[in-house]
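STRUCTURE:
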């Protein structure tokens, strides 16, 4: 049976937005999530393929009349702009062991102009979803990832972006918080990721030192091998983001990121492998650090990581699937704030993780300001470790019940493939004021 738009199905059923996905308890592997012929029509899989490699040094356009195949690491160099037309599909060549492949880098001084629409999003995805073969499937790591590097402030001055071999063109950071790396709108990044070394990976969308002049909205990162979105310093302020079923953190902040993000969804999948660090569980809905220990032993460098997060919905899995379905290392926290990082969280929901929000132990206190936030955890709704601290205002609803309050959602957590994202009064990613911003361009059926 041909798949119908997720949102169309859900609206027809009288539900605002429900993730109409395969049953979470059907034993499906995290590495085997999609069947090509039912995911993308022949109008896409029959397009001619153009392979691109190396550096892009002049203004270049990728049109929707071709599928664009990235070989290795393709870098848009300073002074050049890459324009990607609405409705364009981008994939990777066949993966080569121990080589980063299918990675698109927008270097410092370069720009991307990737403007899709709700009806014609730009899609970065697994090559195996575009070959028209019923027997092939997509899996994390099939596509490398998208990386934007800018001249905005980071708190270590200059740094090589995570996941790539050391080369000056892969460094980021500067003094211009208003730096402009271009535009990404209405785009999906699926089955991305590459592991260069333990804890050194390419994410679905990585932003290093990206400035506030950059426009990013309506972007979905799904089934990545590492984080969905990671921000290393900078002041870019995206809107309307979805991080769905990525292996590590759904959102990650480091190195003095001080941007504002509004309207964002993070959803975990019970069958992700839920990455570990040094043998311990380290898979979070949101993870935020000022610096890694090797960079700053006191975690005190300025500017401090301090994102302002408004209208977030971070949704884990139900208590029934925490055990035995999720095995070690399992999930960790809905939001882990640590290593001197600070955060302001407004009008948001956190549910379905063992612990909701944690202000973690540091040499410098981790400070989390919560305003009109609902948080749930199967063990604890909030937790303070060491010198961490919370400042609360407005309404802070907490629950440690095995079944979380719905807070206006049809499902309070990801359970058997269904979750409703809102509306929930003034809290969460979809409210009466925001409207249904997920319609037509998103994809939850893998």
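SEQUENCE:
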């Amino acid at each position: 049976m041909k798949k119908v738009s997720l949102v169309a199905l859900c609206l027809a059923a009288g539900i605002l937005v429900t993730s109409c996905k395969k049953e979470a308890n059907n034993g499906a592997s995290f590495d085997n999530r999609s069947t090509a012929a039912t995911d993308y029509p022949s109008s896409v899989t029959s397009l001619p393929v153009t392979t691109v490699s190396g550096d892009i040094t002049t203004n270049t356009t990728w049109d929707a009349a071709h599928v664009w195949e990235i070989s290795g690491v393709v870098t848009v160099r300073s002074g050049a702009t890459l324009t990607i037309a609405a409705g364009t599909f981008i994939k990777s060549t066949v993966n080569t062991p121990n080589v980063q492949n299918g990675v698109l880098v927008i270097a410092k001084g370069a720009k991307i102009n990737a403007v899709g629409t709700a009806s014609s999003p730009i899609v970065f995805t697994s090559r195996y979803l575009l070959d028209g073969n019923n027997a092939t499937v997509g899996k994390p790591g099939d596509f490398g990832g998208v990386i934007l590097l800018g001249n905005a402030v980071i708190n270590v001055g200059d740094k090589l972006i995570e996941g790539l071999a050391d080369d000056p063109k892969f460094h980021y950071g500067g003094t211009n918080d208003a730096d402009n790396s271009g535009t990404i709108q209405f785009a999906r990044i699926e089955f991305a990721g590459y592991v260069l070394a333990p804890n050194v990976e390419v994410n679905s969308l990585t932003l290093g030192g990206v400035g506030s002049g950059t426009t990013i909205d309506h972007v979905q990162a799904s089934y990545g091998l590492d984080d969905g979105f990671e921000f290393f310093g900078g002041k870019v302020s995206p809107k309307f983001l979805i991080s769905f079923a990525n292996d590590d953190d759904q959102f990650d902040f480091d190195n003095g990121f001080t941007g504002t993000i509004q309207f964002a969804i993070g959803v975990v999948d019970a069958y992700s492998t839920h990455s570990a660090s040094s043998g311990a569980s380290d898979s979070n809905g949101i993870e935020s650090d000022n610096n890694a220990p090797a960079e700053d032993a006191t975690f005190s460098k300025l500017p401090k990581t301090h994102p302002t997060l408004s209208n977030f919905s971070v949704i884990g899995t139900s208590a029934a699937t925490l055990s035995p379905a999720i095995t070690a290392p399992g999930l960790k926290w809905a939001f882990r704030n640590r290593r001197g990082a600070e955060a302001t969280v407004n009008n948001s929901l956190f549910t379905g993780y063992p612990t909701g929000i944690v202000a973690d132990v540091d040499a410098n206190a981790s400070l989390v300001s919560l305003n009109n936030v609902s948080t749930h955890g199967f063990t604890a709704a909030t937790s303070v470790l060491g010198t961490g601290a919370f400042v609360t205002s407005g309404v802070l609803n907490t629950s440690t019940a095995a079944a979380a309050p719905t807070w206006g959602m049809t499902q309070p957590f990801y359970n058997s493939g269904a979750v409703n994202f809102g509306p929930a009064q003034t809290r969460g990613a979809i409210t009466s004021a925001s409207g249904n911003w997920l319609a037509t361009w998103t994809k939850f059926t893998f």
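REMARK: Residues 45 and 130 are 5 Å apart (CA to CA).
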